[in-house]
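name: query_chain
kind: protein
chains: 1
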Amino acid sequence: MAARVEDLRSIPLFARLEPAALEQLAEAATDFDVQPDQLLAQPGAAGSGMFFVLEGTVEVDARERTRELGPGDFFGELALLTDDGTRTARVRRAAFEELVRQHPEIAATLLETALSRLGQR
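structure:
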């Protein structure tokens, strides 16, 4: 668990959270390795959570624009910020919603990021 907390602390979005909040987030998070060319999200599919890049890079194709995200970046935030998210992720989503209630600055940063990404389309 300590390694997961440190991984989360390395993400700028969570860098200022106190240890208890990071531990709460670490408990709700799921780690997994991704193989090259593995599809993580498909346009039009229901969102199932938010992803944080700890190592390597991912390629994001959004309409006519492609961008690369690396360590410390995140994507999929709209699945947690809207009611349209897949209901099967409810347990993780509830933990995220509680964290946002306790730390509204996270929600503000996510909304700013989502709006800027939507404006770039």
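note: Strands lie at 51-52, 58-62, 65-69, 74-75.
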